[in-house]
Fold this sequence. Notes:
The radius of gyration is 23 Å and the shape is elongated. The protein is α/β, with parallel strands linked by helices and 325 residues long. It has five helices and 17 strands. It has helices at residues 96-100, 134-142, 156-167, 242-254, 273-287, and strands at residues 2-8, 11-14, 37-40, 62-66, 69-71, 79-80, 82-86, 89-94, 108-111, 116-119, 121-126, 146-154, 174-180, 206-214, 258-262, 293-297, 317-320. The protein folds into two domains: 2-15 and 33-119, Roll (Urease, subunit C, domain 1), CATH 2.30.40.10; 121-320, TIM Barrel (Alpha-Beta Barrel), CATH 3.20.20.
Amino acid sequence: MNARRSTSCAIAIILSAALSACGQPGGSDLPVILEPTLQPTASAGSPVPSAPSASSGDTGASVIFHNGLILTMDDALPTASAIHIQGERIVAVGDDASILADAGPTTTTVDLHGLTLMPGFVDAHSHMFQKPDPAAVQEALFRTGLTTTAEMYVDPPLLARLQALDAAGGLRLRLSAYLLYNTNCGEPLAEWWRDHPSTRVPGEMLRIGGVKVFTDGGSCNAPAVTFEYADGIGEGDLYFTRPQLEDALRAIDAASAEAAAEAGPLPPAGENVVYALIVDPWGELYHGGTLQIKLSGPPFPTSAGGGMALPGVAEAAFSTGVGEP
């Protein structure tokens, strides 16, 4: 049997072994990717098929993946062995026989030979597009199963490059760009981000995801802490007072943008003062309206060694950074 659906798709063929979605290219060998067998069903002189049914919602290429393990993320049909894709739409999933019966004269069939096919991974925090070769960056991300990522350090020149890449059709994965409120060294960048409002257009490849705020010197200077450093640099570098941070968050929220705040790493002893600085205003502002929240940095610590719990802010999105430029 097969279950039909019409939804946009981003998929990745991966081995049935665990792959890390957090690695940087060049740090280790790329995973081995087994090649599925492509088999076009069309022959020379085959007629062009009629337009696809309305259920497909797309007139692009018809491809069927079969003889694999399809992870559908659908409780009604968690796994399948075949999937039919028309353009950028999944039109059917199910068993090999029923899905292959849908093949038209120009459908390409792909024998997975038992490989796993699943929706692509989403990396919520990366700096991969700082690198000069976007094609190589995207290939590296694809080879780890990523089909969506967020570039968390976007200044005006990088945004211009990303927009040009998108306009030229060079973006092969979905990318959310977070525009800098200030640099990782605390230098203000005026409010240039106001000229580039957040976007939420279904199917867009380049999305303006929000505004990135560096709260302390964790990736450039010294993390702000509640004790004196031994080497005479005081308590580190804190870029905001609480009122200043609240004003920044309110301004970003008023512009209907998501605020992403970066806090530096936790020193071996003591605590990073930014964690305390962030928790109260974030929680109060969140409860006061519809503040869009994203706290990023190292895992938020607790005495038990786990992640920090923000009371009443369980809906907030958290991510762990892979290192600032």
